């Protein structure tokens, strides 16, 4: 298997060890076998049934030759078998690499080869991919069935004696700046992240997570699944996100929290035409991309629920900050650092900046990845000086709350003036007709770059490009106002629901 540079041993959170997390299904089954664990469509799976499925899957994988240090891939739409495969791989001492099923066969093949996976757990499509990549295929239908007795290791799958530095997850980035890179998260990373989330959000056995984000992303796996299960709670797996029926699912399953991205909140808010019951929700979380303050306020007021914006990335196991449940909560910021996490802002020359100064956000703590799989030079660059360099521009105030300004690479330089697209987008979101907005730069012979706004309107709403430019003029300096406003039916998004600025940037730069 590919390797990453070694790192110092982690100091695990005292209340959660790597072994504790790996053994969650077995411990839950032993202490309360009949209690609810996972709801997946019509299937209502108790603790004993989940552990039985993990045991069966581990037996299949062991019979296929999977051993400690290997990698297992899983390529499925959201369903409980992704969870059982993860725990089964961990039970054997193997790592999991989840694969987005929307990828092409060539893209899937790249991830399998790059990660060094031995087995793919998938539906029928997996058999074809396995044949072309030279790995084994475990059909998803077998996950719940123990192998025949003559299969080696059919029931003998004792828990591997985990070291905190053993690889746990290899999560691939979206590849917006080249081929996707595998972020290696070890068991100490995952344990530290789960412990921090459980403590910050005060999760207990009474909590019930509604999973609407994809399970090939670490937000879904860690915030949506592992944190709830480690706290003793339960998980409802939504096969897919549907704005029109979202509140029906909430009212039926009564979750206490869910995590989503800004686009999902915007679509739900726009699609809702009735009074809804949100009394089961203690809070909801927004991550993956900055959420406009206007949308946060509107969503909270309309649905009477506390929305906590957070910030993180795969390279730091998903989350580095989340606004607090109680006390001061600053709408528009992504909150203070989570327990055990350090966040600072750095100038281009490496100097640490003070409160109110803009610079690159850097992160330190046990949640920071081991590195990029097989990419030592890129790992050394992004983890320079022992800090994760995020590529995000931010400001930390005197209270320690981080506000994101923009991505470093998204900044537009017009005639020597720095323009941050997020500032323009926030103004556009204040217009009542705007559902989605993204601002990119366009090459200009006079100014170098000029801002271009891409906008999708709310259903039934109307607004002209000139009207939206006038709206921006009322709040922004003239040089920041988009030269052009392009109206779209919808804006392009990746499989996690994040807006794809690269596609819009290419469109903006193309000759008209």
Your description of this structure?
The chain is of the alpha/beta class. It has three domains: 18-196, Rossmann fold, CATH 3.40.50.12780; 241-407, Rossmann fold (3-Layer(aba) Sandwich), CATH 3.40.50.12780; 411-509, 2-Layer Sandwich (GMP Synthetase, Chain A, domain 3). It has helices at 18-22, 24-31, 47-63, 80-91, 105-115, 124-133, 187-201, 218-230, 246-253, 262-271, 293-303, 376-382, 421-429, 465-473, 501-509, and strands at residues 36-40, 43-46, 71-75, 95-98, 119-122, 136-139, 167-172, 182-186, 208-211, 234-237, 257-260, 284-286, 307-311, 321-322, 341-346, 359-365, 371-372, 388-396, 402-407, 412-414, 417-419, 434-444, 448-457, 484-488. The chain has an eight-stranded mixed β-sheet, sandwiched between helices. Strands 4-3-5-6 form a four-stranded parallel β-sheet, sandwiched between helices. It has a four-stranded antiparallel β-sheet with strand order 15-16-18-19. α2 packs antiparallel against α3, α3 packs across α4 (80-91) and α7 (187-201) crosses α8. The radius of gyration is 23 Å and the shape is globular. The model is unreliable at 7-14 (pLDDT under 50).
